[in-house]
Specification:
It is a single chain. 14% of the residues lie in helices and 24% in strands. The longest helix has 12 residues, at 45-56. By secondary structure, the protein is α+β, with helices and mostly antiparallel strands. It contains 2 helices and 8 strands; from the N terminus they run E-E-H-E-H-E-E-E-E-E.
Length: 118
């Protein structure tokens, strides 16, 4: 880890291949909890590092009865759903490449990547 590339909000750094500085874009292939690969994506190296640190402490898969809130999605900004606590009604399943669950009072499946356990 490079000791020179730190941000005010981060406690880690990202180094180039030779350890001399930050790298540019990172290309990666997301894999869901069932091992299914998604499409290749890219992001700026610090965004990728922040995501990687979050993944080290990723939450356990959601299960029926868990209480969750929506975050970082369109629905979470709507006044109707903002800060609403939902109850998970189903085990996660794959829907067109996204892991989703049913939420009590919500029609259809909702992507687990936008749900945070409370």
């Amino acid at each position: 880890m490079c000791g020179t590339e730190f941000s005010n909000n981060w406690d880690y750094g990202v180094c180039g291949v030779d350890g001399s500085g930050p790298i540019g874009d990172v290309f990666y292939t997301p894999i869901d909890r069932n091992g299914k690969e998604g499409k290749e994506k890219s992001c700026y190296s610090f965004d990728f590092a922040r995501w990687a640190v979050r993944e080290v402490n990723a939450q356990e898969p959601l299960k029926p009865g868990d209480q969750v809130v929506m975050h970082t999605c369109y629905e979470s900004r709507k006044e109707k759903y903002k800060d609403k606590v939902w109850t998970v009604e189903s085990e996660p399943w794959d829907l067109c490449g996204s892991e989703v669950v049913r939420l009590e009072g919500y029609s259809g499946g909702f992507a687990t990547e936008y749900l945070k356990r409370v």
